[in-house]
Amino acid sequence: MQKFKVIKTDKKSKARRGILQTAHGKIQTPFFMPIATSGAVKTVTPEEVKKCGAQIILSNTYHLMLRPGMPVIKKAGGLHKFMNWSGPILTDSGGYQVFSLSKIRKIKNSGVEFQSHLDGSKHLLTPEKAIKIQETLGSDIMMVLDECPKYPVSKSYARKSMELTTTWAIRSKRAHSNKNLLFGITQGSTYKDLRIQHVRELVKIGFDGYAVGGLAVGEPVQKMYQVLDWVVPELPENKPRYLMGVGKPEQIIEAVKRGVDMFDCVIPTRNARHGTLYVWGNKLGGARAFARAWLKQGLQSTPLGGKFYQELRIKQSKYRLDIKPVDPQCNCELCQNYSRSYLRHLFMTNEPLALRLATLHNVNFYLRLMELIRKGI
RNA sequence: GGGUGGGUACCAAAGCGGUCAACUGGAUCAGACUGUAAAUCUGAUGCCUUCGGGCUUCGGGGGUUCGAAUCCCUCCCCACCCA
Protein backbone atom coordinates (compact mmCIF):
# COMPACT_ATOMS: atom_id res chain seq x y z
CA MET A 1 0.00 0.00 0.00
CA GLN A 2 1.26 3.42 -0.91
CA LYS A 3 1.25 5.52 2.24
CA PHE A 4 2.25 8.80 0.65
CA LYS A 5 0.81 10.30 -2.47
CA VAL A 6 1.86 13.48 -4.22
CA ILE A 7 -1.28 15.09 -5.54
CA LYS A 8 0.07 18.27 -7.01
CA THR A 9 3.41 19.78 -7.89
CA ASP A 10 4.26 23.42 -8.27
CA LYS A 11 5.31 24.61 -11.69
CA LYS A 12 7.93 27.10 -10.67
CA SER A 13 9.47 25.34 -7.70
CA LYS A 14 9.91 21.84 -6.33
CA ALA A 15 7.04 22.40 -3.93
CA ARG A 16 4.43 19.70 -3.84
CA ARG A 17 1.19 18.87 -2.12
CA GLY A 18 0.50 15.42 -0.90
CA ILE A 19 -1.38 13.16 1.43
CA LEU A 20 0.34 11.05 4.02
CA GLN A 21 -1.56 8.11 5.40
CA THR A 22 -0.89 7.19 9.02
CA ALA A 23 -2.42 4.83 11.55
CA HIS A 24 -4.35 7.77 12.97
CA GLY A 25 -5.51 9.37 9.79
CA LYS A 26 -4.45 11.22 6.69
CA ILE A 27 -2.35 14.35 6.72
CA GLN A 28 -2.19 17.02 4.06
CA THR A 29 1.35 17.96 3.17
CA PRO A 30 3.25 20.20 3.52
CA PHE A 31 2.50 20.33 7.22
CA PHE A 32 3.87 21.65 10.45
CA MET A 33 3.93 19.74 13.72
CA PRO A 34 3.50 21.61 16.98
CA ILE A 35 5.83 20.15 19.54
CA ALA A 36 4.63 18.21 22.54
CA THR A 37 7.95 16.90 23.77
CA SER A 38 6.70 15.47 27.03
CA GLY A 39 3.23 14.64 25.85
CA ALA A 40 1.82 18.15 25.95
CA VAL A 41 2.03 21.21 23.78
CA LYS A 42 3.08 23.42 26.62
CA THR A 43 0.26 25.43 28.21
CA VAL A 44 -2.53 24.30 25.86
CA THR A 45 -4.73 21.25 25.50
CA PRO A 46 -4.72 18.83 22.58
CA GLU A 47 -8.27 19.95 21.84
CA GLU A 48 -7.08 23.51 21.45
CA VAL A 49 -4.15 22.45 19.30
CA LYS A 50 -6.55 20.60 17.07
CA LYS A 51 -8.80 23.61 16.90
CA CYS A 52 -5.85 25.66 15.68
CA GLY A 53 -5.68 23.30 12.75
CA ALA A 54 -2.96 20.92 13.82
CA GLN A 55 -3.06 17.66 11.91
CA ILE A 56 -0.23 16.01 13.77
CA ILE A 57 1.99 16.71 16.74
CA LEU A 58 5.51 15.70 17.66
CA SER A 59 6.64 14.03 20.84
CA ASN A 60 9.92 12.76 22.17
CA THR A 61 11.27 9.32 22.94
CA TYR A 62 14.02 10.34 25.35
CA HIS A 63 11.88 12.58 27.50
CA LEU A 64 8.95 10.18 27.67
CA MET A 65 11.26 7.30 28.44
CA LEU A 66 12.49 9.14 31.52
CA ARG A 67 9.10 10.53 32.47
CA PRO A 68 6.54 9.11 32.87
CA GLY A 69 8.30 5.94 31.70
CA MET A 70 6.94 3.13 29.62
CA PRO A 71 4.95 1.32 32.33
CA VAL A 72 2.74 4.37 32.65
CA ILE A 73 2.30 4.66 28.90
CA LYS A 74 1.49 0.99 28.60
CA LYS A 75 -1.05 1.24 31.38
CA ALA A 76 -2.65 4.20 29.59
CA GLY A 77 -2.84 2.24 26.37
CA GLY A 78 -0.34 4.31 24.45
CA LEU A 79 0.55 7.95 24.15
CA HIS A 80 -2.55 8.90 22.17
CA LYS A 81 -4.85 7.79 24.92
CA PHE A 82 -2.56 8.99 27.66
CA MET A 83 -2.64 12.56 26.41
CA ASN A 84 -6.02 12.44 24.68
CA TRP A 85 -4.79 13.23 21.19
CA SER A 86 -6.49 11.14 18.57
CA GLY A 87 -4.56 12.39 15.56
CA PRO A 88 -1.20 11.20 14.31
CA ILE A 89 1.92 11.58 16.41
CA LEU A 90 5.49 11.69 15.18
CA THR A 91 8.11 10.85 17.74
CA ASP A 92 11.68 11.97 17.63
CA SER A 93 14.11 9.27 18.61
CA GLY A 94 16.25 11.14 21.08
CA GLY A 95 18.77 11.99 18.39
CA TYR A 96 18.30 15.68 19.00
CA GLN A 97 19.12 15.18 22.66
CA VAL A 98 22.50 13.90 21.52
CA PHE A 99 22.98 17.48 20.40
CA SER A 100 21.06 19.48 22.98
CA LEU A 101 22.19 17.44 25.97
CA SER A 102 25.72 16.92 24.73
CA LYS A 103 27.15 17.63 28.17
CA ILE A 104 25.40 14.71 29.80
CA ARG A 105 25.72 11.97 27.24
CA LYS A 106 28.30 9.65 25.76
CA ILE A 107 28.12 8.22 22.29
CA LYS A 108 28.99 4.57 21.97
CA ASN A 109 28.71 2.21 19.06
CA SER A 110 25.85 0.49 20.81
CA GLY A 111 23.90 3.70 21.35
CA VAL A 112 23.88 6.84 23.45
CA GLU A 113 24.38 6.77 27.17
CA PHE A 114 22.52 9.63 28.80
CA GLN A 115 22.93 10.66 32.37
CA SER A 116 19.42 11.74 33.25
CA HIS A 117 19.07 15.44 33.88
CA LEU A 118 16.34 14.53 36.34
CA ASP A 119 18.07 12.22 38.78
CA GLY A 120 21.51 11.49 37.35
CA SER A 121 20.73 7.88 36.56
CA LYS A 122 22.28 6.40 33.44
CA HIS A 123 20.24 5.26 30.47
CA LEU A 124 21.58 3.61 27.38
CA LEU A 125 19.42 4.48 24.42
CA THR A 126 20.14 2.07 21.60
CA PRO A 127 18.61 2.19 18.13
CA GLU A 128 16.60 -0.91 19.01
CA LYS A 129 15.41 0.52 22.27
CA ALA A 130 14.42 3.79 20.63
CA ILE A 131 12.24 1.86 18.20
CA LYS A 132 10.77 -0.28 20.90
CA ILE A 133 9.86 2.74 22.99
CA GLN A 134 8.30 4.45 19.99
CA GLU A 135 6.27 1.35 19.25
CA THR A 136 5.12 1.28 22.84
CA LEU A 137 4.17 4.92 22.57
CA GLY A 138 2.14 4.03 19.52
CA SER A 139 3.94 6.54 17.36
CA ASP A 140 2.53 6.91 13.86
CA ILE A 141 5.81 8.13 12.49
CA MET A 142 8.91 6.87 14.20
CA MET A 143 12.36 8.28 13.73
CA VAL A 144 15.54 6.24 13.72
CA LEU A 145 18.08 7.06 16.38
CA ASP A 146 20.72 9.30 14.87
CA GLU A 147 23.58 11.44 15.97
CA CYS A 148 22.86 15.09 15.42
CA PRO A 149 26.30 16.70 15.41
CA LYS A 150 26.86 20.30 16.28
CA TYR A 151 27.96 22.94 13.82
CA PRO A 152 30.68 23.31 12.87
CA VAL A 153 32.29 19.87 12.92
CA SER A 154 35.38 18.62 11.21
CA LYS A 155 34.82 16.61 8.13
CA SER A 156 36.40 13.57 9.68
CA TYR A 157 34.08 13.75 12.64
CA ALA A 158 31.09 14.37 10.38
CA ARG A 159 32.01 11.28 8.42
CA LYS A 160 32.47 9.12 11.46
CA SER A 161 29.21 10.35 12.93
CA MET A 162 27.41 9.78 9.68
CA GLU A 163 28.70 6.23 9.44
CA LEU A 164 27.51 5.52 12.95
CA THR A 165 24.11 6.96 12.09
CA THR A 166 23.96 4.64 9.10
CA THR A 167 24.61 1.55 11.16
CA TRP A 168 22.02 2.74 13.64
CA ALA A 169 19.56 3.25 10.79
CA ILE A 170 20.07 -0.34 9.67
CA ARG A 171 19.60 -1.60 13.20
CA SER A 172 16.52 0.56 13.64
CA LYS A 173 14.93 -0.80 10.53
CA ARG A 174 15.67 -4.34 11.64
CA ALA A 175 14.09 -3.66 15.03
CA HIS A 176 11.00 -2.08 13.50
CA SER A 177 8.23 -4.60 14.09
CA ASN A 178 4.87 -2.89 13.60
CA LYS A 179 3.13 -1.37 10.60
CA ASN A 180 3.64 2.25 11.52
CA LEU A 181 5.91 4.48 9.52
CA LEU A 182 9.64 4.62 10.11
CA PHE A 183 11.73 7.48 8.80
CA GLY A 184 15.46 7.59 8.22
CA ILE A 185 17.49 10.66 9.07
CA THR A 186 20.18 11.92 6.76
CA GLN A 187 23.26 13.60 8.17
CA GLY A 188 26.60 14.78 6.84
CA SER A 189 26.78 18.25 8.31
CA THR A 190 27.43 20.86 5.62
CA TYR A 191 29.74 18.70 3.49
CA LYS A 192 28.35 18.10 0.06
CA ASP A 193 29.91 14.75 -0.63
CA LEU A 194 28.97 13.44 2.81
CA ARG A 195 25.41 14.66 2.53
CA ILE A 196 24.96 13.04 -0.85
CA GLN A 197 26.66 9.85 0.18
CA HIS A 198 24.49 9.58 3.24
CA VAL A 199 21.16 10.17 1.52
CA ARG A 200 22.03 7.50 -0.97
CA GLU A 201 22.91 5.06 1.78
CA LEU A 202 19.65 5.70 3.56
CA VAL A 203 17.57 5.47 0.41
CA LYS A 204 19.24 2.20 -0.28
CA ILE A 205 18.26 0.89 3.14
CA GLY A 206 14.74 2.06 2.42
CA PHE A 207 12.41 3.98 4.71
CA ASP A 208 8.84 5.22 4.67
CA GLY A 209 10.11 8.76 4.60
CA TYR A 210 13.32 10.70 4.90
CA ALA A 211 14.33 13.42 7.24
CA VAL A 212 17.09 15.91 6.75
CA GLY A 213 18.72 16.17 10.14
CA GLY A 214 21.62 18.08 11.57
CA LEU A 215 20.40 21.42 10.28
CA ALA A 216 19.39 24.59 12.11
CA VAL A 217 22.07 23.84 14.64
CA GLY A 218 23.92 27.11 14.21
CA GLU A 219 25.00 27.08 10.57
CA PRO A 220 24.24 30.09 8.36
CA VAL A 221 20.78 29.81 6.83
CA GLN A 222 22.18 29.85 3.32
CA LYS A 223 24.12 26.69 4.12
CA MET A 224 20.95 25.07 5.29
CA TYR A 225 19.26 25.84 1.99
CA GLN A 226 22.31 24.62 0.18
CA VAL A 227 22.20 21.29 1.98
CA LEU A 228 18.56 20.94 0.94
CA ASP A 229 19.59 21.61 -2.64
CA TRP A 230 22.04 18.74 -2.42
CA VAL A 231 19.93 16.28 -0.52
CA VAL A 232 16.36 16.58 -1.75
CA PRO A 233 17.09 15.65 -5.39
CA GLU A 234 18.50 12.37 -4.10
CA LEU A 235 15.27 11.48 -2.35
CA PRO A 236 12.55 9.39 -3.96
CA GLU A 237 9.60 11.42 -5.24
CA ASN A 238 7.08 9.13 -3.65
CA LYS A 239 8.30 9.43 -0.08
CA PRO A 240 7.70 12.30 2.31
CA ARG A 241 10.59 14.58 3.19
CA TYR A 242 10.99 16.04 6.59
CA LEU A 243 13.23 18.93 7.56
CA MET A 244 13.77 18.43 11.25
CA GLY A 245 13.55 21.33 13.66
CA VAL A 246 12.87 24.05 11.13
CA GLY A 247 12.06 26.80 11.51
CA LYS A 248 11.20 30.40 10.95
CA PRO A 249 8.30 31.07 8.58
CA GLU A 250 10.47 32.15 5.67
CA GLN A 251 12.72 29.13 6.19
CA ILE A 252 9.74 26.83 5.95
CA ILE A 253 8.72 28.46 2.70
CA GLU A 254 12.21 28.22 1.30
CA ALA A 255 12.31 24.56 2.23
CA VAL A 256 8.88 23.86 0.73
CA LYS A 257 10.15 25.41 -2.48
CA ARG A 258 13.00 22.95 -2.35
CA GLY A 259 10.63 20.02 -2.04
CA VAL A 260 10.23 19.47 1.70
CA ASP A 261 6.89 18.21 3.02
CA MET A 262 7.16 18.17 6.79
CA PHE A 263 8.32 20.52 9.52
CA ASP A 264 8.46 20.90 13.24
CA CYS A 265 9.93 23.57 15.44
CA VAL A 266 9.73 24.90 18.97
CA ILE A 267 9.76 28.47 17.73
CA PRO A 268 6.02 29.13 17.74
CA THR A 269 5.44 27.59 21.15
CA ARG A 270 8.61 28.62 22.94
CA ASN A 271 8.64 32.12 21.54
CA ALA A 272 5.01 32.50 22.52
CA ARG A 273 5.94 31.75 26.11
CA HIS A 274 8.77 34.24 25.84
CA GLY A 275 6.51 36.97 24.52
CA THR A 276 7.25 36.92 20.78
CA LEU A 277 4.08 36.86 18.72
CA TYR A 278 3.84 36.24 14.99
CA VAL A 279 1.81 38.74 13.05
CA TRP A 280 0.94 38.82 9.38
CA GLY A 281 2.70 41.68 7.68
CA ASN A 282 0.26 42.12 4.85
CA LYS A 283 -3.34 41.71 3.96
CA LEU A 284 -4.39 38.14 4.02
CA GLY A 285 -7.34 38.90 1.80
CA GLY A 286 -6.14 37.17 -1.30
CA ALA A 287 -4.45 34.53 0.74
CA ARG A 288 -4.12 32.08 -2.06
CA ALA A 289 -2.60 34.54 -4.46
CA PHE A 290 -0.40 35.85 -1.73
CA ALA A 291 0.90 32.43 -0.84
CA ARG A 292 1.51 31.69 -4.44
CA ALA A 293 3.55 34.84 -4.74
CA TRP A 294 5.71 33.80 -1.82
CA LEU A 295 6.38 30.47 -3.38
CA LYS A 296 7.13 31.71 -6.83
CA GLN A 297 8.77 35.04 -6.47
CA GLY A 298 10.78 34.25 -3.42
CA LEU A 299 10.97 36.30 -0.34
CA GLN A 300 13.11 39.10 -1.70
CA SER A 301 10.16 40.52 -3.54
CA THR A 302 7.68 40.27 -0.72
CA PRO A 303 6.75 43.21 1.48
CA LEU A 304 8.44 44.15 4.72
CA GLY A 305 11.95 43.80 3.44
CA GLY A 306 11.58 40.19 2.46
CA LYS A 307 9.35 39.35 5.36
CA PHE A 308 5.65 38.76 5.12
CA TYR A 309 5.25 38.73 8.87
CA GLN A 310 6.49 40.52 11.94
CA GLU A 311 7.71 39.31 15.27
CA LEU A 312 5.85 41.37 17.79
CA ARG A 313 7.58 41.40 21.17
CA ILE A 314 4.58 42.05 23.30
CA LYS A 315 6.56 42.91 26.42
CA GLN A 316 7.98 46.03 24.81
CA SER A 317 6.78 49.16 26.54
CA LYS A 318 5.31 50.58 23.37
CA TYR A 319 2.41 48.16 23.66
CA ARG A 320 1.42 49.33 27.12
CA LEU A 321 -1.43 51.47 25.84
CA ASP A 322 -2.01 49.65 22.57
CA ILE A 323 -5.60 48.49 22.61
CA LYS A 324 -5.49 46.88 19.17
CA PRO A 325 -5.54 43.10 18.90
CA VAL A 326 -2.14 41.47 18.42
CA ASP A 327 -3.13 40.74 14.85
CA PRO A 328 -6.41 42.16 13.57
CA GLN A 329 -6.37 39.61 10.76
CA CYS A 330 -6.09 36.64 13.06
CA ASN A 331 -9.03 34.55 14.13
CA CYS A 332 -7.50 33.03 17.24
CA GLU A 333 -8.91 33.31 20.74
CA LEU A 334 -6.34 35.95 21.66
CA CYS A 335 -6.88 38.24 18.72
CA GLN A 336 -10.63 37.89 18.76
CA ASN A 337 -11.03 38.89 22.39
CA TYR A 338 -8.04 40.69 23.87
CA SER A 339 -5.84 43.70 23.25
CA ARG A 340 -2.07 44.00 23.02
CA SER A 341 -2.24 46.10 26.14
CA TYR A 342 -3.99 43.32 28.03
CA LEU A 343 -1.69 40.58 26.78
CA ARG A 344 1.31 42.69 27.74
CA HIS A 345 -0.19 43.14 31.15
CA LEU A 346 -0.65 39.37 31.48
CA PHE A 347 3.01 38.88 30.61
CA MET A 348 4.23 41.61 32.93
CA THR A 349 2.27 40.16 35.82
CA ASN A 350 3.32 36.61 35.00
CA GLU A 351 -0.20 35.42 34.54
CA PRO A 352 -0.20 31.89 33.08
CA LEU A 353 -3.01 32.98 30.81
CA ALA A 354 -0.47 35.02 28.84
CA LEU A 355 1.40 31.88 27.86
CA ARG A 356 -1.72 30.06 26.86
CA LEU A 357 -3.13 32.84 24.70
CA ALA A 358 0.22 33.55 23.08
CA THR A 359 0.78 29.87 22.35
CA LEU A 360 -2.63 29.51 20.77
CA HIS A 361 -1.90 32.53 18.64
CA ASN A 362 1.50 31.39 17.39
CA VAL A 363 0.39 27.84 16.73
CA ASN A 364 -2.54 29.25 14.86
CA PHE A 365 -0.19 31.45 12.84
CA TYR A 366 2.09 28.58 11.88
CA LEU A 367 -0.74 26.29 10.92
CA ARG A 368 -2.38 29.05 8.95
CA LEU A 369 0.92 29.60 7.19
CA MET A 370 1.00 25.96 6.17
CA GLU A 371 -2.54 26.18 4.97
CA LEU A 372 -1.62 29.13 2.77
CA ILE A 373 1.39 27.30 1.47
CA ARG A 374 -0.72 24.30 0.55
CA LYS A 375 -3.22 26.55 -1.17
CA GLY A 376 -0.41 28.27 -3.01
CA ILE A 377 0.89 25.07 -4.55
C1' G B 1 7.97 62.62 77.82
C1' G B 2 11.69 58.15 78.23
C1' G B 3 14.19 54.18 75.59
C1' U B 4 15.88 51.29 71.44
C1' G B 5 16.67 50.42 66.33
C1' G B 6 16.78 52.78 61.72
C1' G B 7 17.09 56.41 57.32
C1' U B 8 21.78 53.66 51.01
C1' A B 9 20.10 54.13 43.75
C1' C B 10 12.76 53.10 41.11
C1' C B 11 11.60 49.45 45.47
C1' A B 12 13.73 46.05 49.04
C1' A B 13 18.37 45.29 51.05
C1' A B 14 24.04 44.53 51.85
C1' G B 15 28.16 47.50 52.89
C1' C B 16 30.21 50.05 58.53
C1' G B 17 37.48 54.32 57.09
C1' G B 18 40.50 53.47 51.15
C1' U B 19 40.04 47.86 46.42
C1' C B 20 32.38 51.72 46.42
C1' A B 21 28.99 54.52 41.44
C1' A B 22 28.21 50.92 45.84
C1' C B 23 26.90 43.08 46.78
C1' U B 24 22.15 40.80 46.01
C1' G B 25 16.95 40.44 44.93
C1' G B 26 12.70 42.65 42.74
C1' A B 27 10.86 46.07 39.23
C1' U B 28 11.79 48.29 34.59
C1' C B 29 14.22 48.45 29.59
C1' A B 30 16.38 45.81 25.49
C1' G B 31 17.92 41.32 23.09
C1' A B 32 18.11 35.97 22.15
C1' C B 33 15.38 31.54 21.27
C1' U B 34 15.10 26.47 15.14
C1' G B 35 14.02 17.38 15.79
C1' U B 36 12.20 21.93 23.98
C1' A B 37 16.78 20.22 30.70
C1' A B 38 13.71 26.84 28.09
C1' A B 39 6.70 30.37 31.59
C1' U B 40 14.07 30.27 29.98
C1' C B 41 18.62 32.76 29.15
C1' U B 42 21.84 37.28 28.20
C1' G B 43 22.74 42.41 28.75
C1' A B 44 21.42 47.36 30.63
C1' U B 45 19.40 50.32 34.66
C1' G B 46 23.15 58.08 38.78
C1' C B 47 25.02 61.82 34.88
C1' C B 48 28.54 62.72 30.84
C1' U B 49 32.07 60.40 27.48
C1' U B 50 36.45 61.12 21.71
C1' C B 51 34.94 54.46 25.79
C1' G B 52 40.96 55.94 28.11
C1' G B 53 38.01 58.06 31.54
C1' G B 54 35.50 62.29 33.76
C1' C B 55 31.63 64.24 37.16
C1' U B 56 27.87 64.28 41.17
C1' U B 57 25.79 60.46 44.97
C1' C B 58 24.43 56.77 50.45
C1' G B 59 18.17 61.83 55.15
C1' G B 60 19.94 67.71 55.85
C1' G B 61 23.95 70.64 57.76
C1' G B 62 28.67 70.88 60.10
C1' G B 63 33.24 68.39 61.58
C1' U B 64 37.56 64.63 62.09
C1' U B 65 40.93 62.39 58.38
C1' C B 66 45.72 62.18 53.17
C1' G B 67 40.85 59.69 52.33
C1' A B 68 33.92 59.03 54.79
C1' A B 69 28.03 55.56 52.71
C1' U B 70 31.25 54.00 56.80
C1' C B 71 33.82 57.95 62.71
C1' C B 72 32.02 62.56 65.70
C1' C B 73 28.33 66.75 66.53
C1' U B 74 23.67 68.61 65.36
C1' C B 75 18.97 68.87 63.11
C1' C B 76 14.89 66.39 60.52
C1' C B 77 12.16 61.96 59.67
C1' C B 78 10.54 56.65 60.47
C1' A B 79 9.58 51.99 63.34
C1' C B 80 8.92 49.49 67.80
C1' C B 81 8.77 49.39 73.26
C1' C B 82 7.80 51.94 78.07
C1' A B 83 4.94 56.03 80.49
TrEMBL record:
Recorded catalytic activity of this chain's protein: 7-aminomethyl-7-carbaguanine + guanosine(34) in tRNA = 7-aminomethyl-7-carbaguanosine(34) in tRNA + guanine
Biochemical pathway: tRNA modification; tRNA-queuosine biosynthesis
Pfam families xref list: TGT
Positions annotated to bind substrate: D92, S93, G94, G95, Y96, D146, Q187, G214
UniProt keyword Metal-binding present: yes
Keywords assigned: Glycosyltransferase, Metal-binding, Queuosine biosynthesis, Transferase, tRNA processing, Zinc
SUBUNIT field: Homodimer. Within each dimer, one monomer is responsible for RNA recognition and catalysis, while the other monomer binds to the replacement base PreQ1.
Function: Catalyzes the base-exchange of a guanine (G) residue with the queuine precursor 7-aminomethyl-7-deazaguanine (PreQ1) at position 34 (anticodon wobble position) in tRNAs with GU(N) anticodons (tRNA-Asp, -Asn, -His and -Tyr). Catalysis occurs through a double-displacement mechanism. The nucleophile active site attacks the C1' of nucleotide 34 to detach the guanine base from the RNA, forming a covalent enzyme-RNA intermediate. The proton acceptor active site deprotonates the incoming PreQ1, allowing a nucleophilic attack on the C1' of the ribose to form the product.
Protein name: Queuine tRNA-ribosyltransferase
Organism of origin: Candidatus Kerfeldbacteria bacterium CG08_land_8_20_14_0_20_40_16
Taxonomic placement: Bacteria, Candidatus Kerfeldiibacteriota
